[in-house]
Amino acid sequence: MTDPVRYSVQDGIAVIAVDNPPVNALSQAVRAGLAEAVARLSGDDQARAGVIYGAGRTFIAGADIREFGKPMAEPFLPDVIAAIEACEKPVVAALHGTALGGGLEVALGCHARVALASAKVGLPEVTLGILPGAGGTQRLPRIAGAAAALDLITSGRHVAAVEALKLGIVDAVVDGDDPLAAGLAHARRLADGEATGRRSGEIDPGAKDEALFADWRAKTKKSARGQISPMVAIDAIEAAYDLPFNEGMARERELFKELMASDQRAGLIHAFFAERAVAKIPEAEAASPREVASIGVIGGGTMGSGIAVAALNAGLPVTLVERDEASVERARGIVSKLLDDGVRRGKLSEARRDQILSRDFSTATDYSALAETDLVIEAVFEDMDVKKDVFRRLDGIAKAGAILATNTSYLDVNEIAAATSRPQDVIGFHFFSPAHVMRLLEVVVADKTAADVVATGFALAKKLRKVAVRAGVCDGFIGNRLLNTYRKAADYMVEDGASPYQIDAALVAFGFPMGPFAVSDLAGLDIAWAGRKRRAATRDPRERTVGIADRICERGWFGQKTGRGYYLYEPGARRGSPDPEVEAIIAAEREAKGIVPRSFTDEEIVSRYMAAMINEAAKIVEEGIALRPLDVDVTMLAGYGFPRWRGGPMQYADRLGLDTVLAELRRLSAEDGFFWEPAPLLVRLADEGQTFASLNERD
Ligand code: T1G
Ligand code: NAD
Questions:
Q1: Contact predicate 430/444, CB 8 Å
Q2: 567, β-bridge pairs
């Protein structure tokens, strides 16, 4: 192992290289190495100034997140940075890659900062449930002002070098790919007195803009939606104006420690690592992905068009096949509109859009247009016969080795694969709506799917900037199977006395962006209705069924698209209002079953909803549909709006305690029967005093 921090002198300038792959995180060894290097610079007659830079692909990406939750070992980062700032000789930070969190804080403690044009900086701590804890909340406002500090610190966003220059965060932006050369040149200018450096901690922050802070608090309270760290971060930034620097630093530390001890921090760190761990699957270790240079899409409706745009945005050429000319035109229209939206939001240039439409995107009504395509994604109607027909035709024309994927939401991928002569090339790619926006991709592995086809699914997801989760074949895979289960729990509560509006409100208060009934209205009630009809024949006779949704659908109320569902919608509105007629339907259904409505507290609603979700998730893990509990967590976080700061249902269950969840399920199953019977895995883990997390380590 090489030294994580190396010291050398080049032409009178000390070069301090941080070398701790992969991202130069500030482990204890790096902190100690930096402290030692700065002390050495102070006493080194050969060096007039110093440069700190990152070896490899990046500057410092921040504290070593793996050390969180453990006792911190000295030297502490704020002290290391104080020593850098106090150094009598000028020290320059030379930034490339990403300078994030503690990495940017190190740079803010230096006397000047230069950045390559490709570099990005940011203080993403709030996204991990904490706040910048090494002076970021005190030095950034002094350097860049309160507005920029509030923006960067409460959002955690990454800022490109050019914007960082405008904000005063960096002193110079340099083209090229050699951060050290840029740093050396700047250090020389400082040593020669051609440029001046500053100690950020000594800058007068000026008077506090009370209105700005009040405004930011109000805005953040809304956007943070239950997450505490952005609000606490505002308190810390305010201390830069209310207190002298050293006291402000102490206040920051105090707030940092509070957040470090919070459940939200544990949930968000779990989410960070889980999103990276989901890619660790046996197939990716066993095989290399196939080459994918072109994509075919069959069906250009809601999903097909969105999938096409996701691929086009990632630079992949797409051929889209529809049934007839009219459908082709409609699909072209949707794709153009989605690209136009991208231009309007500044995500895409007009020139790039025009290039996509004229060069990268083509359409056809004849499957032969897909003969040379590397990977085809089918997104036609959710109907087994239609899908089988599509796959038979594809089998007839696709080149050898082409990957044939289905975007089915529920159907059996084994059965679809069996319609072809090459089931090893068939896989499920379950995208979420809108497909060019939603981050989740469930990669559904059928019995005969080849390992390199699975690996290709994960590689494609990365290219599309999505998170892939490996799922096995069952009705609804991981996500929709869970959705169906917790939706039933919600329906039971409605039949027993809760209103859909109270349930939605309780779950929004828990942290979901929308409640389950508002989500149904958005997705279209007809989709679930078709699913219920499809499953009616195979339904377990012990299962409790609720007829309310059927009664609503029978009236032709399918949600937002028809102007009413569970809610009433004004024309064009996305938010609805409670519908007394729906409440009357519910009352009639209760009466017909002889149910005397009871009241539910919001806590009871959340408890039942979560118990149903956790129990089904345990079954999904036990059956091997999900590889590990963390795969369930990422599915719910990236595809179903589960509040990120709660870590996902399995992490949430671990924090509640599995014995608590089990007790709730046993109580409910005594009261309401079969649906609530605890999953054997949950019973076993609870009996052993274990957690779901104990199953996350795969060897
Ligand atoms: N600590 C430990 N490991 C880290 C890490 C970190 N900060 N950042 C990344 N990794 C691991 C990651 O788990 C993965 O491991 C590998 O590095 C490559 O990452 C005092 C308290 C830098 C933009 O929040 O945003 O400073 O899976 O796959 O896509 O105020 O990683 O290979 O085993 O993500 O090129 C603030 C978090 C910390 C930055 C690179 N810093 N990292 O993205 O690679 S808090 C952050 C990222 C802090 C101070 C506070 C990204 C990246 P493995 P990757 P990438
Ligand atoms: P949609 O009705 O909007 O689009 C389906 C399209 O397929 C139509 O444009 C139709 O003309 C075309 N089509 C039908 N048969 C065809 C054929 N033989 N050849 C070529 N084109 C044909 O449906 P959608 O919502 O986009 O759903 C498509 C698939 O994606 C379904 O399997 C669905 O379950 C799945 N899915 C949907 C969602 C969602 O939220 N809508 C989410 C994930 C997955």
A1: yes
A2: 578
Q: Report the alpha-carbon angle 181-186-189, nearest 5.
A: 130
Q: Can you tell me which atom of ligand 2 is nearest the CA of 321?
A: 20
- Which residue among 36, 74, 85, 105 is the active-site one? 105
How do residues 535-585 score in pLDDT, each as one tens digit?
A: 888 888 889 999 999 999 999 999 999 999 999 999 988 899 999 999 999
Rounded distance between C-alpha atoms, residue 525 and residue 557, angstroms = 8
Residue span(s) of the chain under CATH 1.10.1040.50 come to 479-696
Ligand 2-lining residues (CB < 6 angstroms): 298-304, 321-323, 327, 379-382, 386, 390, 407-409, 431-433, 523
pLDDT in tens, 493-548: 999 999 999 999 999 999 999 999 999 999 999 988 988 898 888 888 889 999 99
Distance CA 176, CA 184 (A): 14
430, 471 in Cβ contact below 8 A? yes
Q: What residue spans in the chain does CATH classification 3.40.50.720 cover? A: 292-471
Give the model's pLDDT for residue 1: 59
61 lines ligand 1 (CB under 6 A): yes
Nearest to 139 by CA among 114, 115, 104, 98: 104
pLDDT recorded at residue 2 = 76
Cα separations in angstroms, 394 against 331, 399, 453:
20, 9, 17
**Residue among 297, 305, 381, 411 whose CB has most ligand 2 atoms within 8 A, to mutate:** 381
- Ligand 1 pocket, residue 121 CB under 6 Å: no
Give the residue, out of 23, 127, 152, 268, with the most ligand 1 atoms within 8 A of its beta carbon, to mutate for a pocket test.
23
Topology of domain 292-471, CATH: Rossmann fold (3.40.50)
Residues 265-292 pLDDT 10s: 999 999 999 999 999 999 999 999 999 9
CA of 323 to the centre of ligand 2 (A): 11
Rounded-to-integer distance, Cα 517 and Cα 525, Å:
9
Pocket of ligand 1 contains residue 132 by CB under 6 Å: yes
> Which part of the chain has CATH 3.90.226.10?
5-261
Give dist(CA 123, CA 643) in Å, integer: 21
Respond yes or no: is residue 105 known to be catalytic. yes
Total-model pTM: 0.94
Note the ligand closest to the C-alpha atom of 58. Answer: 1
Helix (H), strand (E) at residue 589? helix 580-592
Concerning whether 382 is annotated as a catalytic residue, the answer is no
Give the per-residue pLDDT at 315: 97
Which CATH code for domain 479-696?
1.10.1040.50
Report DSSP state, residue 166: H
CA distances from 186 to 21, 58, 60 (A): 26, 19, 19
Alpha-carbon span 429 to 420, nearest angstrom: 17
> Rounded to 5, what percent of the chain is helix, strand, coil?
55, 10, 35
Nearest ligand by distance to the CA of 524: 2
Instruction: Indicate the burial class of 367 (C-beta count within 10 angstroms; 0-12, 13-18, 19 or more).
Output: middle
Instruction: Give the mean pLDDT of 469-488.
Output: 97
Half-sphere exposure of 457 (CA within 13 A, CB side): 36
Among the atoms of ligand 1, which is closest to the Cα of residue 276? 27
The CATH fold of domain 5-261: 2-enoyl-CoA Hydratase; Chain A, domain 1 (3.90.226)
